[in-house]
């Protein structure tokens, strides 16, 4: 019988299913934007099983057989159920017969009484089943028998498939990882590490889902579908056809509902607002500088309206279709029972039992067909994931580092030569890195490669290691082309020390041992001594057994570098490659590491790339690189005379060194050169949207967030209480529908026992009409519920997004520097967190009300009709609820537990893939693959254990209803016989409670959404509760009327909050009087722009003060201060709106007339150019001003600064990015703008600085010289040198 209930929960479970799928698809949409299309599916379903062994095949076959048998169990049940109904009805008819005083019972036969005058020979040979208890016992045994077999079949079906899948997945993981580790480095450049990591976890999990329990469940449900229909057709084809005729209506409803769900329209509607948020957060400095926070919040809010409208529309559509489904289903009931009853009563073709068998047979079949569909999604996802994974497994690497092929030379001298090598990275084929490079490196000598960033120095080194093969030309060692040598052997000759050495998360000794396998502790100690690392290691409490932390995080830069050198030395290499080995260190550690390197170089071929003079001077040969060619070579002095590449590097540097003996880790010309590794990462990051990385980090840290109290979430939703009230009413009525259904259903059965045909007919028509009514009512209440909760939920989402966005814009700038708060991460947070919070209010309340009324009504009704039977069934209720919950859980799958088990293996694979260059250089691929495989064992074992548990649970959930029914009907039979309970009440009670039980289970499984909502809300509240140290929205702080623009920096020290180890300002003292122009010059990274940001109060100094008109900047009201400052920066940020609006952005505190805009534009030399455009001032500048040239953008930015009429003008390299012509125009505009204002200029070109009142030369956060142009020239110091060499000042 329990299928009838299944049916009730049918539509709901169906929507819920779509619901979760819908959400998933939304999220996908968010992250997938980076890769335009999902992989085409190129793997057939059966190819998924290509790694199955014979044993796996056997298990899968057994599992499938069990699934088929299990699938036929439900239809079998219906046969038993039909017989049972007939038995009850016959019994009741006889009771009715016996109530007739004119009849009596003789020898188990009901007859007319003899003394009754009438038709004497009319004996009714109805055999009275006196012993209904006996019959019921028999049926109970049937039920129990089917229940037990279902348990066993369910267990085997699931556990066999899951076990087989676990074995295959383990093999796939092994093969995939070992193949990835064999790939050449060029492949890694084109594939991001993050992507590989997700592939290893998510994609392989998707394959797992596609080849495990889903297959078994699909087979089982499909069998049920087939058997259900066959029972329908065999037992009663007429009724079956009638029901089938109505079923397309249900299908249409379900299909349309799916479409409505997946349009994702509200995401597109939100995309507009999302774009605003992204634009604003990416240009937060501009927004802050021009005080545009409130304006932006308004603009964002405007764009949210359309998203809100769509969300509400979706709620109505969803409500409409849910209601429609229920309506159709109830109409189907009415039709089936009405037509079926004619067949039973008028033509007597069916017994009542047959009617039920047919009706439920078809329903069960339809239900199962519906439930089999999610499995198809899993199969498709699995095939999509397998496409990429299997293609990688089948790919042959171009440079196979594990191959045994190639020569090994007996004796290696170490002469390296490049012959006309041309090379470009596979990830950027359009950029030539090396262009016909020819260089010879003699054995035993130290050769230094110097040259500007991007000249190809590091690339040359990577070619020696054979990370890449040159596109033309060849690299030889001792005259042998390295392509002919064995790779592992070649790499074992080479020791490499990089700029950012990579250490592995293990002990120091192990890290050094990575250099050469099986090396003794003495060798490790010697290597450590040679690398000047021995002393600091012995000072550590655990000496060589100290763990270095993830990525070597526990060690300082110098320590890491020395461990890396020890690792390179322990190999005893013939060739030593030093790629900027000391550039990232401070002076002290540099000297130590340099000394270590000098010790080591003796007698080896060494190639050193460096930017610091101290490192290069004593090399045997210096080779100067430019644009991928070696342009000069010779000794230090020879090259100085040539005045080429080397000369420029040297002159620039020595000036920086003299100026200051206190060194900081920022390097003058190091220009924060990224190592190639970082560089190739940056190419990749263009492919992967930045949001995907920090978010992953986000979730980890936010794991610590306490889930938010519901009361607080509801408080934000309080204005919508009328909606929520009506929604709850609708939900309550919907909850009552289930029990009402069981009432009507049992009433119909009762009518079949009525002997008077006319009364019977009326009764049946009445009940069918009632079915229609219930359908109509539930149609409207579902719509009400859908609309009301959607409305309250969407209003809440909009309110939260707005408040959240406002809170974000109110944070200080330093907060945005944290990678966790990158624009991508923040916009994603606004998009997803806010919409997830809905889950804790509206729909969740609806859910709870719905289940409570459902169960409440069911139990009250049952106790009213038969309290004894109700008590018996209530014992089973918890189990039924459990099974309902478990079934809902089955739909979501169990991937989460797998993830935790995979974590250890995931760490290893992550570490390996992130540091693939280091591993390849050390030739350590094999050992990583072995460790990974060893770590796969734990998840595999847990998967096997889980297969059993999971199988048992599945079997249990499937059989629990059979057992309940067995017990209840047996007891029901007893009550009917002993206590004269009417049999229809037995059905009524059983069906009411069992339905509500499954519904309860389903509701309970709905909680994950709820938990997620609370966490999202908590993250939101964390943001709202954060009090920024520099608050934009507060009115506190000084304001004064006659703002002059007198600025003083007093002993300012500052470090950026995200890089506390790098001192940017180191005691800056400088002052400007009102109306003066101060120019900052100096190399990049010396703190020029930083001082400007302190003035804007984007940051506050850590030490010292910034005084404005004698007021301490930290005490000044922030909006007031910023309103007095106009800024024009090197890359001006424009917003995606018209030119006029961009200019008006300069002053957000008042309405600006068009005349003001035009006069500002004239001052900025912009007016003529704008008037030449077709739309004049209404021309849209495109996103980030992409429609305009740089000079035009720069002039708009100047107009924007002028319109504020600021007292202080900051020009941060305002002309450096322009060509000469536009520079002239812009420069004129700036000179006009400067009149009568305090002005701070940062520039690299002399022409811009010469006529400043004060020129301040900075280096490493200190002022080294200041004065006018002429004074400084007379000093003959750093400024003089810069001017005379004509080198750009950077």
TrEMBL record:
Major localization listed first in the record, in broad terms: membrane
Transmembrane segments: 58-84, 140-166, 215-233, 239-260, 316-338, 721-744, 764-790, 845-865, 871-892
SUPFAM superfamilies: ABC transporter transmembrane region, P-loop containing nucleoside triphosphate hydrolases
Location relative to the cell: Apical cell membrane; Recycling endosome membrane
UniProt catalytic activity: cholate(in) + ATP + H2O = cholate(out) + ADP + phosphate + H(+); taurocholate(in) + ATP + H2O = taurocholate(out) + ADP + phosphate + H(+); taurochenodeoxycholate(in) + ATP + H2O = taurochenodeoxycholate(out) + ADP + phosphate + H(+); glycoursodeoxycholate(in) + ATP + H2O = glycoursodeoxycholate(out) + ADP + phosphate + H(+)
Keyword vocabulary terms for this entry: ATP-binding, Cell membrane, Endosome, Glycoprotein, Membrane, Nucleotide-binding, Phosphoprotein, Repeat, Translocase, Transmembrane, Transmembrane helix, Transport, Ubl conjugation
Membrane topology recorded in Swiss-Prot or TrEMBL: Multi-pass membrane protein
Biased composition (Polar residues): 1-15
Domain of life: Eukaryota
The ABC transporter domain, residue ranges: 416-652, 1047-1285
GO annotation, biological process: canalicular bile acid transport; oligopeptide export from mitochondrion
Signal peptide annotation: none
Region of interest (Disordered), ranges: 1-25
Keyword Zinc part of the UniProt annotation: no
InterPro entries found in the cross-reference section: AAA+_ATPase, ABC1_TM_dom, ABC1_TM_sf, ABC_transporter-like_ATP-bd, ABC_transporter-like_CS, P-loop_NTPase, Type_1_exporter
GO cellular component: apical plasma membrane; mitochondrial inner membrane; recycling endosome membrane
ABC transmembrane type-1 domain segment(s): 61-381, 725-1012
Alphabetized GO MF terms: ABC-type oligopeptide transporter activity; ATP binding; ATP hydrolysis activity; bile acid transmembrane transporter activity
Quaternary structure, from the entry: Interacts with HAX1. Interacts with the adapter protein complex 2 (AP-2) throught AP2A2 or AP2A1; this interaction regulates cell membrane expression of ABCB11 through its internalization in a clathrin-dependent manner and its subsequent degradation.
Family: Belongs to the ABC transporter superfamily. ABCB family. Multidrug resistance exporter (TC 3.A.1.201) subfamily.
Function noted in UniProt: Catalyzes the transport of the major hydrophobic bile salts, such as taurine and glycine-conjugated cholic acid across the canalicular membrane of hepatocytes in an ATP-dependent manner, therefore participates in hepatic bile acid homeostasis and consequently to lipid homeostasis through regulation of biliary lipid secretion in a bile salts dependent manner. Transports taurine-conjugated bile salts more rapidly than glycine-conjugated bile salts.
Official protein name in the record: Bile salt export pump
Originating species: Nothobranchius furzeri
Lineage of the organism: Eukaryota, Metazoa, Chordata, Craniata, Vertebrata
């Amino acid at each position: 019988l329990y299928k009838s209930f299944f049916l009730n929960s049918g539509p709901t479970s169906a929507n819920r299913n779509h619901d979760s799928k819908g959400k998933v698809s939304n999220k996908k949409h968010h992250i997938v934007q980076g890769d335009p299309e999902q992989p085409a599916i190129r793997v057939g379903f059966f190819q998924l099983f290509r790694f199955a062994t014979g044993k796996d095949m056997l298990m899968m076959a057994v599992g499938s057989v069990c699934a088929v048998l299990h699938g036929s169990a439900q239809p079998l049940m219906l046969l038993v159920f039909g017989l049972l109904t007939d038995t009850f009805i016959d019994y009741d008819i006889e009771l009715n017969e016996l109530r007739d005083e004119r009849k009596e019972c003789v020898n188990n036969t009901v007859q007319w009484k003899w003394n009754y005058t009438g038709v004497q020979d009319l004996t009714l040979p109805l055999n009275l089943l006196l012993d209904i208890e006996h019959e019921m016992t028999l049926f109970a045994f049937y039920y129990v028998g089917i229940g037990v077999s279902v348990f066993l079949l369910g267990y085997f079906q699931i556990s066999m498939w899951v076990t087989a899948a676990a074995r295959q997945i383990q093999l796939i993981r092994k093969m995939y990882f070992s193949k990835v580790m064999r790939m050449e480095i060029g492949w890694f450049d084109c594939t991001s590490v993050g992507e590989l990591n997700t592939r290893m976890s998510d994609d392989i999990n998707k394959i797992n889902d596609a080849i495990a329990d889903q297959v078994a469940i699909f087979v089982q449900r499909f069998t049920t579908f087939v058997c259900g229909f066959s029972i329908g057709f065999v037992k009663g084809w007429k009724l079956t056809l009638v029901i089938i005729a109505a079923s397309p209506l249900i299908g249409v409803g379900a299909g349309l509902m799916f479409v409505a769900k997946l349009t994702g329209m509200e995401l597109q509607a939100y995309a507009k607002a999302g774009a605003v948020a992204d634009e604003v957060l990416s240009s937060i400095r501009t927004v802050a500088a021009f005080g545009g926070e409130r304006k932006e919040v308004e603009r964002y809010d405007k764009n949210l309206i359309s998203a809100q409208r769509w969300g509400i529309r979706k709620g109505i559509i969803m409500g409409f279709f849910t209601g429609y489904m229920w309506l159709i289903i109830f109409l189907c009931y009415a039709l089936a029972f009405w037509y079926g009853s004619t067949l039973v009563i008028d033509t007597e073709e069916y017994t009542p039992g047959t009617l039920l068998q047919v009706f439920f047979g078809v329903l069960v079949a339809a239900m199962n067909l519906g439930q089999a569909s999610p499995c198809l999604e899993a199969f498709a996802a699995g095939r999509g994931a397998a496409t990429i994974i299997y293609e990688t497994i089948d790919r042959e690497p171009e440079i196979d580092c594990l191959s045994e092929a190639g020569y090994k030379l007996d004796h290696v001298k170490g002469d390296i030569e490049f012959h006309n090598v041309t090379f470009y990275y596979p990830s950027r084929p359009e950029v030539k890195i090396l262009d016909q490079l020819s260089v010879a490196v003699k054995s035993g000598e130290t050769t230094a490669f110097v040259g500007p960033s991007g000249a190809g120095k590091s690339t040359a080194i990577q070619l020696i290691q054979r990370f890449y093969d040159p596109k033309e030309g060849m690299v030889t060692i001792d005259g042998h082309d390295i392509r002919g040598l064995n790779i592992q052997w070649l790499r074992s000759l080479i020791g490499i020390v990089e700029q950012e050495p990579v250490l592995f998360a293990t002990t120091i000794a192990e890290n050094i041992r990575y250099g050469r396998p099986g090396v003794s502790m003495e060798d490790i100690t010697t290597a450590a001594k040679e690398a000047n690392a021995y002393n600091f290691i012995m000072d550590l409490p655990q000496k060589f057994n100290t763990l270095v932390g993830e990525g070597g995080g526990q060690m300082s830069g110098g320590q890491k570098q020395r461990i890396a050198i020890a690792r390179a030395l322990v190999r005893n290499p013939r060739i030593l490659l030093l790629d900027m080995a000391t550039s990232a260190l401070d002076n002290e550690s540099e000297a130590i590491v340099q000394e270590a390197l000098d010790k080591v170089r003796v007698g080896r071929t060494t190639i050193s790339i460096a930017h610091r003079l101290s490192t290069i001077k004593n090399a045997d040969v210096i080779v100067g690189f430019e644009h991928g060619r070696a342009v000069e070579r010779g000794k230090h002095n020879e090259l100085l005379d040539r005045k080429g590449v080397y000369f420029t590097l040297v002159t620039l540097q020595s000036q920086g060194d003299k100026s200051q003996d206190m060194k900081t880790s920022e390097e003058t010309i190091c220009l924060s050169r990224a190592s190639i590794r970082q560089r190739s990462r940056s190419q990749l990051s263009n492919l992967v949207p930045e949001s995907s990385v920090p978010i992953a980090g986000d979730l980890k840290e936010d794991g610590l967030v306490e889930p938010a109290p519901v009361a607080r979430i509801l408080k934000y939703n309080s204005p919508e209480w009328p909606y929520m009230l009506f929604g709850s009413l609708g939900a309550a009525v919907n909850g009552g529908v289930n029990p009402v259904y069981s009432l009507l259903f049992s009433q119909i059965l009762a009518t079949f026992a009525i002997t008077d045909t006319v009364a019977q007919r009326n009764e049946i028509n009445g009940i069918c009409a009632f079915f229609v009514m219930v359908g109509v009512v539930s149609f409207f209440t579902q719509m009400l519920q859908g609309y009301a909760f959607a409305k309250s939920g969407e209003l809440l989402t909009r309110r939260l997004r707005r408040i959240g966005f406002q809170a974000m814009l109110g944070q200080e700038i330093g907060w945005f520097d944290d990678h966790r708060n990158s624009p991508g991460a923040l916009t994603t947070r606004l998009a997803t967190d806010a919409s997830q919070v809905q889950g804790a209010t509206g729909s969740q309340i609806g859910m709870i009300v719905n289940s409570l009324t459902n169960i409440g009504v069911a139990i009250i009704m049952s106790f009213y009709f038969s309290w004894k039977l109700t008590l018996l069934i209530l014992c089973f209720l918890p189990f039924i609820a459990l099974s309902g919950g478990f079934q809902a859980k089955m739909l979501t799958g169990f991937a989460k537990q797998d993830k935790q088990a995979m974590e250890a293996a995931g760490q290893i694979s992550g570490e390996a893939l992130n540091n693939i260059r280091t591993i390849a250089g050390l030739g350590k691929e094999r050992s990583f693959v072995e460790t990974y495989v060893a770590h796969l064992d734990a998840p595999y074992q847990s998967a096997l254990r889980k297969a059993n548990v999971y199988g048992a649970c599945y079997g249990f959930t499937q059989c629990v209803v059979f057992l309940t029914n067995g017990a209840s009907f047996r007891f029901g039979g007893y009550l009917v016989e002993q206590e004269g309970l009417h049999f229809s009440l037995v059905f009524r009670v059983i069906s009411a409670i069992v339905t509500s039980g499954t519904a309860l289970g389903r509701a309970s499984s709905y909680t994950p959404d709820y938990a997620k909502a609370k966490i999202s809300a908590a993250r939101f509240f964390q943001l709202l509760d954060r009090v920024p140290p520099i608050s934009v929205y507060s009115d506190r702080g000084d304001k004064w009327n006659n703002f002059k623009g007198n600025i003083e920096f007093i002993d300012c020290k500052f470090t950026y909050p995200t890089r506390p180890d790098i001192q940017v300002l180191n005691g800056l003292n400088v002052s400007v009087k009102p109306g003066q122009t101060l120019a900052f010059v100096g190399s990049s990274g010396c703190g020029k722009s930083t001082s400007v940001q302190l003035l804007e109060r984007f940051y506050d100094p850590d030490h010292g003060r910034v005084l404005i008109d004698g007021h301490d900047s930290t005490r000044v009201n922030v909006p007031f201060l910023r309103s007095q400052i106009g800024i024009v920066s090197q890359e001006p940020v424009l917003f995606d709106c018209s030119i006029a609006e961009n200019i008006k952005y300069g002053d957000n505190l008042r309405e600006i007339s068009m005349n003001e805009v035009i006069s500002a534009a004239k001052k900025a030399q912009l007016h003529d150019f704008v008037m030449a455009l077709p739309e004049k001032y209404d021309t849209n500048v495109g996103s980030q001003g992409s429609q305009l040239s740089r000079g035009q953008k720069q002039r708009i930015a100047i107009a924007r600064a002028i319109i504020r009429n600021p007292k202080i003008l900051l020009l941060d390299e305002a002309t450096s990015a322009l060509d000469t012509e536009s520079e002239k125009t812009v420069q004129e505009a700036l000179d006009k703008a400067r009149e009568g204002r305090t002005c701070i200029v940062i520039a690299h070109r002399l022409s811009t600085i010469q006529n400043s009142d004060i020129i301040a030369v900075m280096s490493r956060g200190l002022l080294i010289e200041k004065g006018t142009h002429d004074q400084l020239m007379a000093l003959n110091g750093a400024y003089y040198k810069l001017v005379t060499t004509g080198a750009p000042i950077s």
